[in-house]
Amino acid sequence: MNKQQRINLIYKTNVKTAVFQSLLTFPMVFCLVGLIQSDSWNGWYVAGVLVCLLLLGGIFFKANRVETELTERENAKTIIARRNGFVFALFVVFILSFALTLNLGWMYAWILAVAVGVLYGGYRLIRKQDEQLTDIDPEHPKLKEIRLDNVRD
Fold first, then answer.
1. What pLDDT is attached to residue 146?
2. What's the DSSP call for residue 142?
3. Which has the closest alpha carbon to 21: 55, 50, 72?
4. Do the Cβ atoms of 103 and 39 come closer than 8 Å?
5. CB within 8 A of 130, min separation 6: which ones?
6. How many CA atoms lie within 13 A of 119 on its CB side?
7. What is the pTM of this model?
8. How far apart are alpha carbons 96 and 5 in whole angstroms?
9. Nearest 5°: CA angle at 83, between 7 and 111?
10. What whole-number distance in Å separates Cα of residue 143 and Cα of residue 118?
C-alpha cells in the first residue's frame, strides 16, 4: 500500500472514530463540570470521567490497530503504537490538569503551566518519533500529514 492509500485509510478511520469521540465528550464534560463544581471529589463524577477516558482509550486503541496493520515492519509498529499512546496520554494529562486547576483554584495555576510544558515536550517527542518512522518506513505518513488536505480519492 502506498503513502496516499494509507493517508486515505487512516483519515477515514479517524473520521469514523470522531463520531464516537464526540458522543463521549458530552458525558465527560458533564462529569468534569460536576467534579469541578462539587466541594469534594464525588465518586460518581470521578467514575464517570474514568469510564469516559477508558472508552476514549479503547477508541484510540482501535484506530492504533488499524494504523499498525498498514506496515509489516515491527520497529515501525512499535513506533506507531508508542506515538499514538503518547497522543492519548497528552490528552489525558491536559484534561486532568485543567480540571484539577479549576477544582483547586487559580492559585494552583502552576499545575497548568507544568502540563503545558509536558504537552510541548510530548509534541517534540511525537515529532521525533515521526522522523524515526519515516526512516524505517518511508511509505507511512507522518501524523501531521493525516488531514483532509492530503486525502485523495
1. 85
2. P
3. 55
4. no
5. 83, 142, 143, 144
6. 14
7. 0.81
8. 36
9. 125
10. 19
DSSP-assigned letter for residue 38: S
pLDDT of residue 51: 93
What count of residues does the chain have? 153
Cell of 118: 509536558
Nearest CA to 11 out of 147, 142, 152, 134 is that of: 147
Q: Which grid cell is 88?
A: 492519548
Cell numbers 494529562 correspond to 93
Closest CA to 71 of 128, 147, 140, 7: 140
- The predicted model gives 54-74 an average pLDDT of 90
Whose cell is 485509510? That residue is 9
